[in-house]
Amino acid sequence: MPTTLPVPIEFRLPEGWLPARPEGFGAPEVAFAAVCPESDAGFTANITIDGGFPKDGVTLAEIADASVERLREFAESVELVHRREVGSEEAPALTQRLNFSAVADGARHELVQSQVYLCLVDTEDPHKRAMIRLALTATRARHDEVLHKFQDFVRTVRPDNGAVS
Question: In a designed cystine with 143, which of 12, 123, 138, 163 is the match (CB 3.0 to 4.6 A)?
Answer without folding.
Answer: 138
